[in-house]
Amino acid sequence: MSKVKKKIKTIRIDLDKCNGCKACEVICASFHATPKYSSNNPARARIRLIRDPLRDVFVPVYAGEYTAAECMGRDKYIINGKEYDECGFCRASCPSRDAFKEPDSGLPLKCDMCEDDPTLEEPMCVQWCLADALIYEEREEEVEEDVKLDDMEVGLKSLVDKYGFEKLIETMARINQK
Questions:
Q1: For the chain, which terminal residue's Cβ has fewer other Cβ atoms within 10 angstroms, N or C?
Q2: How far apart are CA 47 and CA 172, in angstroms?
Q3: What is this structure's pTM?
Q4: What is the pLDDT of residue 6?
Q5: Angle CA(153)–CA(142)–CA(112) in degrees, nearest 5?
Q6: What is the structure's pLDDT at 178?
């Protein structure tokens, strides 16, 4: 492994400024429609607004990595006297809830910071946030980089894991003789 500098892109959220307008959800869903801007299905948005209208509290949460397993804990948080489930603030797409899943296929969604061609200066949700509650930030971090396996290596590794190295070699030799 080697250390490399990597650009980390994040969206900082100022809860005091969010007014719950949902402009972030609308533009995200439109941007990610196929073809782009052709429709607006909020279930396709990579950002969701969690709200408590009685207390006037709005929390934008954008989609993170997919996780194949559910969380072990189900912690509860109390904010201004209101109890919230930990899942409500989780950015992951997981088997225990439907948030951040593509509505037609069920595939997990992840915020891609609206990386497009040409590259945008800021994600669309940040650009369209009239309350300035979403702040785009970039920073460089030095991280250890794993060697990424290409598609063939991933496939071969899974075959070795399933059938063993010897069986894979025998099969490859037999295929090579034909």
A1: C
A2: 47
A3: 0.67
A4: 84
A5: 65
A6: 75
Give the pLDDT score at 86. 67
- Number of other CB atoms surrounding residue 30 within 10 Å: 19
Alpha-carbon distance 95 to 90, whole Å? 13
- What is the 3-state secondary structure of the chain? CEEEEEEEEEEEECCCCCCCCCHHHHHHHHHCCCCCCCCCCHHHCCEEEEEECCCCEEEEEECCCECCCCCCCCCEEEECCEEEEHHHHCCCECCCCCCCECCCCCCECCCCCCCCCCCCCCCHHHHHCCCCCEEEEEEEEEEEECCCCCHHHHHHHHHHHHHCHHHHHHHHHHHHHC
- Which residues of the chain have a pLDDT value below 50? none
